[in-house]
What we know:
mainly alpha; Glycerol uptake facilitator protein
Amino acid sequence: MTDALKRHWPEYLMEAACLGLFMISAFTFGAVLEYPGSALHQAIPYSVLRRFVMGIAMGSTAILIIYSPWGKQSGAHINPSTTLTFLRLGKVAKWDALFYILAQFGGGTTGALLASTVLAAWVSHPSVNYVITMPGSAGTAAAFLGEVVITFILMRVILRVSNNSRLHKLTGVCAGALVAAYITLEAPISGMSMNPARTLASAVPAQYWTALWVYFTAPLIGMLAAAEVHLRSRSPGIDCAKLHHENPKRCIFCGKPPSEA
């Protein structure tokens, strides 16, 4: 444990910072799109169009994080379910997995608390409500199923694309595109979390704990199921736990030296 912390603490801090920035982006765009007094909210009267804009914003945020210097070095999991899935696949050491998960929860919550302080009047409004993730009108069961399905597809795509020699550099783009599509189309069902750290980050300032179990279990089930399908199919072998590997940054997962990419 001590050795992992001494050698890999920069990656842990990068992982925390990346999810913190993701939450700041979510709070900011959620506020300007949903707060009734916002000019952008008034300019876009239809909720589906606002979700589309939110999807583009958050999908772009995810892409920027994955291809950022920090994302290239940490691997940009920014999700405990992703880290645990790569642990199951044997691509992350157990102590790295533990510190990644602690960093993700800590970084995400810190980002949410910072954003909720700066944007207090806007994000606390019921129409924004700290961009919490909560089951839609179809209920908790539908939200659970929705989270399982979207995380299954996301991890299936990540594993297929990231381990394809021709397409691996597009992994971040594919992941961001799915985030954008899910926010636009699936958010009314589950709130589109896919990430227990992201859900808890919003829940803390909102003090909203309803159906929290959905977002702690369904994403992990969906991603682990995708990993099992990958292992049992004729899919390519799994190279590394990074979403973007061929770059000049060190890799704490597979030990490959940095490339010149």
